[in-house]
Amino acid sequence: MVHSDSSSFVRVGGMQLGSEQRHCQQHGSYTAYSHKPGIWSACEQCQDASDVQQRQASMQQQRQAQQAALWQKRLGRAAIPARFAERSLQNYRPTCAAAEQALRTCQRYAQEFDAVLKTGRSLIFCGSVGTGKTHLAVGIARHIMEAGKQAVMSSVLKAVRRIKESYRRDSPHTEAELIQEFVEPDLLILDEVGVQFGSETEKMLLFDIINGRYEVMKPSILISNLGLAELEHYIGTRAMDRLREGGGKAVVFDWESYRRVV
Questions:
Q1: For the chain, does the N or the C end have fewer beta carbons within 10 angstroms?
Q2: How far apart (Å, rounded) are the C-alpha atoms in residues 256 and 247?
Q3: Which residues form the AAA+ ATPase domain (predicted)?
Q4: Against a cut of 0.85, is the pTM above it?
Q5: Is 126:224 a contact under the CB 8 Å cutoff?
């Protein structure tokens, strides 16, 4: 609240200019000026504080807009299928003790991801259909992306097809450049391992991806409906050895399908 004391007016070029001593409860006495009848300038210190608040609010809005844009860019690059886009560690509902243990393993992995990056520790999710393997993998991806890291998800078949695009004569990319696309992300999730044909070329390309990430200490998560022995047959012993190094862990999803339970 502002209280006025005394005021005075002078005419300058046909305009009536006034000044008045006023009192601001927050900043004390100040001189107010009037260029129009009944309109007086506010306390300068109050005005300065208001300007600062407005600038801060504007900067906060800009930061939020930038963060939202970065998140959308990160999410787009992650290539998470729309069906799984809203999956998270928070909304996974375990149906048995083994599923609860799998959830805890994924929560620790996500929470300790900075440490994971120092060793390149990978995960292998294998086992029954409909048990939440993709849900938990996407949940880990969302957690680390919210922390500013980049995750990318792809089926093995899509990854192999993408790299094989370099074999065309008119391809603007080399094989090495397209392999590097899968090496760069902080976390790579390879889904549907075992759906591909398992040819030597595919094994070689898959090994190049896994080995490339292994060499730069970047973790991978492999998802398969196969058992561990069958999975090793598809990806090859060398690739499996890379995934096991640095504390790599296999999580076996061997409980009843969630889809049948619900």
A1: N
A2: 28
A3: 119-246
A4: no
A5: yes
